[in-house]
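Entry 14. Ran structure prediction on the chain below.
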Amino acid sequence: MLVSEQKFMDWLKQEDYKDWTGTGYPSTIYQYVGAIKRVMAKENIESLSDLTQHIQLLIRKYGPYGPMKEYGSSSHNTVINALKRFMDFLINIYDFKPIKKMYFV
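Output, C-alpha cells:
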C-alpha cells in the first residue's frame, strides 16, 4: 500500500482539522504530521507505507498503558492522537482492516 503524506493531510482537512491557526502558526494538521514523523524516526520506520504495518502496535505502545505512554501523551496527547487519526485515515481511505486484539509480547 503506497500511502501519501499529502493524502493524509488532505483527509485531515476534509475531517475539519485545521492547517493554520488564526495567527498564522501551524495547527493540528502539521502537528500531527510532525508527531508521526518523530515516532517513525524513534521506531526506525522509513515510510508511511511501512508505518501501516505497525500502526496498531504503535497505538498500544504509545497509548495510556504502553511503555511509551509519557511520550505518547506529550504536547496534550498530540502523539497518540496523531497515530489514532492515521489509523482512521487508513481505515477510511485504504479500507485498512485492524486486527481485533493486539498484545505485547
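The mean pLDDT is 91. Will compare against last week's run tomorrow.
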